[in-house]
User: What shape does this take?
Amino acid sequence: MMPRLGAKYAIEIEVTSKPIADYQTDAYFELDLPVAPAVMVGDEIVVEGANVAEEKVEAVIRLHLGLPELQPRKKSLIARLLGR
Assistant: This one.
């Protein structure tokens, strides 16, 4: 998801991956960074400790870049019938 959004928008994507134990140290908490897994756009934490929908991340990126909101996609007939 992130590389695709990085290619779509003029935004730098930085991915940090560490062992879980590294995220649970006092030194990490002192950095005031979110608990993994997390997504941040600028200084805003989009989600912390959970997965997030690509549409939510894209909406925050667009807001951060001063772009207008995307219009919601129309649901297919099947999606409407299934309540998705």
